[in-house]
Design goal:
The complex is a heterodimer. Chain A is an alpha+beta fold. Chain A is built from 26 helices and 22 strands. In chain A, the strands form 5 sheets. Chain A has a 6-stranded mixed β-sheet with strand order 14-18-19-17-16-15. Chain A has a 5-stranded mixed β-sheet with strand order 6-8-9-11-10. In chain A, strands 20-12-13-22-21 form a 5-stranded mixed β-sheet. In chain A, helix 4 packs across helix 5 and helix 11 crosses helix 12. The radius of gyration of chain A is 36 Å and the shape is globular. By secondary structure, chain B is mostly beta strands. In chain B, the strands form 2 sheets. A 6-stranded mixed β-sheet of chain B has the order 8-1-2-11-10-9, with no helix packed on it. Chain B has a 5-stranded mixed β-sheet with strand order 3-6-7-5-4. In chain B, strand 1 and strand 2 form a beta hairpin. The chains are: A alpha+beta, B mainly beta.
Amino acid sequence: MTLDLTQFHDAFFEESFEALDSMEAALLKLDLGAPDAELVNTIFRVAHSIKGGSATFGFSEIASFTHSLETLLDELRSNKLQVTSPMLDLLLKSVDAMRDMLRAVQNKTPIDSQRVADLQFDTEAILAQRTTTAGVVPAAVTAAAAQQGANATATTNGASAPVVTAPTASSPSAAQDAGASASAPAVAAPPAPPAASVPSSRQWKISFRPYPELFARGNDPLRMLRELAELGTLGVEASFDSLPAFDALNPEKCFLSWSLELSGSVDEAAIREVFDWAEGDCELEIVEVAAPVAAAAVDDDIVNHDLIAEFDAMMAADAAPKYAPVAAAAAAVNPPQEEAVNRRAAEEATEPTIAPNPHPETSKISKSEATAASGIGDSGSIRVSVEKIDELMNTVGELVITQSMLSQLGKNLEGSASEQFRMGLAELERNMRELQESVMRVRMLPISFVFSRFPRMVRDLAQRLGKEVNLVLTGEQTELDKTVLEKIGDPLVHLVRNSIDHGIEKPDVRKGLGKPAVGTLKLDAQHRGGNICVEVSDDGGGMNPAKILAKARSRGVIGPNDVLTDAQACELIFMPGFSTAETTTDVSGRGVGLDVVRRNVKELGGTIEIRNDVGRGARFIITLPLTLAIVDGQSIAVGKQNYIVPLISIIESLQIKQGALNRVAGQGEVFSFRGDYVPVIRLHEVFGVEPRAHELHQGLIVIVEGDGRRVGLFVDDLLGQQQVVIKSLETNYGHIDGVSGATILGDGSVALILDLPGIIRRAGAGMRAN
Amino acid sequence: MNQVATTTEPSHGAEQFLTFVLGGEEYGVTILQVQGIQGWDRCTPIPNTPDYILGVINLRGAIVPIVDLRRRFGMPAAEFGPTTVVIVVRVATERSERTLGLVVDAVSEVCNVNAEERQPAPDFGAGIKTDFVKGLATVDKRMVILLDIDRLVSEGLLGELSVH
């Protein structure tokens, strides 16, 4: 029993976070008027599995919270409660709370128990409301029905009586349990006599033999039996055959198995669903019985309802549902006389059950079939850590270098075998390229990973700001590198907030403008060449260039007489600290944001542009490289050193004539490039290396763009263009100004990749220092 | 390349050190941090770094910085000769583990140093920094200076560069 559960923690957390995401998504899709049963089931399942898991791992706070939640969801699932808007809010908040709790447990930090308690209180308040309004009446009815049932069968339902009075425990969850347990036998009992007269009802025999580890997976047989009882008239017979002596009893293992008889208008799928979670942890056989065994079933019911009631009583007294399995086991051990009576009665009553199956072929509902059915939703994927993929990438990178070494060697080979060798090399090169591309694809993830957070965010924001926003997501399956994906999230959040806060108007304003009251916010992603374009657009008011200009003038961002085009004016919103919002809200308007967005996008090697349509909305278009791992580079030479310049930032390379250079203030060098004066940065000065060319006309000028500025980079020579794999310098060293990374060339040597904004900053600082 | 590491078995209570020569002095680094030894080859200089950072090399796909220990300790620079080697070590910093190469004059041996053979670093006063000296040991009547490379790195070898 020294099974170390901690090894499963990571998997549990990971799965739970994912499950919570899907629960959130389902909640957001939930239609208040007519909730889709499948969605409600999804939501319920998440709560159920997290409860089970956290109970197994001993995260009692999470288990207790999710239990309340589960109870509420169960009510929704069985249509006893209707989903209301406040309830939806509560459920969403619960998702957040569960996420935070899981994170807290994961990081071993304390849980915010006040918040959890508040939410739990709210949840239970809703449940309590239900029991005071709708709940009381059925309780009375069921009591009467139970009475009736008892009379009809002339057997005292004595054992179930204490159940109703037993729970004096103060915990509300115990009360719920008691409530549920009190109704369980009552609901099950009365339909028994009329069952015979309803021909549409079907008879099922279910053999449920859990493996001993059932409890460890967070399953609770009692709940399953109770669920079955709600489907129709349930006959239960527990088998104690494998129950060990009390001193040998391991309370964490399940030694009981059950033969069940269910009659009612249920189909097999509904029954299977009850056992959904025990799938793989039990032997399950479900067989339809042709002729109703009415008389036997009735007797059976009484005996076995006693048993259920007994379990319920034990459980209610125990107050904590996670001990239910223990209680159940204890119940089976404790009252030996009763048990003996039960067993004898059961043996007598259920003889037909034990008798040979009239339809042996139907019992061959094989397990494999069941698992195959449940595995349909599985996309056939595996979980791999990023490190492993990076390792693979590294190895492939190494192979590419080795291969180019061999190619160089092959060129110089002579003789009869050399031709064959070169052919082999060509083959190798092709395969290598394919291998590299495949590995790159492994790192690609659909952008839906980022988009999925927006429905919730938009909903919350719109609600807070009193706006109505319809979010439209397209191109969610567009794939991009995981690293890019991780970094694109924050800029998108900023843009979306911006659109909702500043772009989309309040419903009454919109109506006044002749627009639909509900604003539309679109998020779109698509591949364009080697890049990915992500677009955030809204049908709000757009930006008013005049307003921006006025603001910019008053802030001194631009001079009073500067004339800017509308497009240029819109660019101003990317200036740090610039905001035209009249008031600062907690959502946006502080003027930090768009400059950060642009910086983040630039850091990823991308661009951002605005398409503004005054009065009709704004579009922000972000263009990003698909991957950060590989860049198209231009090799340049300065002295003995080779550097790589990202091709995307090169505008043009040229040689300038002697005397084409002008000096500004005796220091800065500028030259005229297509009518603009472009400053020259001598790379050898910035990097402190000895160049071959000292005079500008001896070398080359590479016009590059960085940080929105154009500069001419003075270098000795241009070498070839190639795709290079970017490697971090920071892993083993640290950040170097003007260098964004390094790469390994075909000969195994290292070349630095230039970071142009960094170089421009550094050169600027140098000039000022002079 | 690595066979030196297996020549001596560690005896009980002893720590194994790889010793190397630097300007006539003998230094030792704990063998557990040594990843490998390789001959000196050219490396790619990194701009605007202290002179003791010679540059970076490609070590099985990783970009690894190379430190000239002579310059680091303020010793006169020497021509790199046939015995000049790079000792690749793994060091723990506050944030992560890093790999770097140390250029030394020559590698000598792997030796066991028992606890009783070790002494703390002498205090030379304020003039000479001995922060990265873990202690002194006597091996075969020779003095070996035991280096604390983690300290060497955290005391500005790489750390101060991030400020640049």
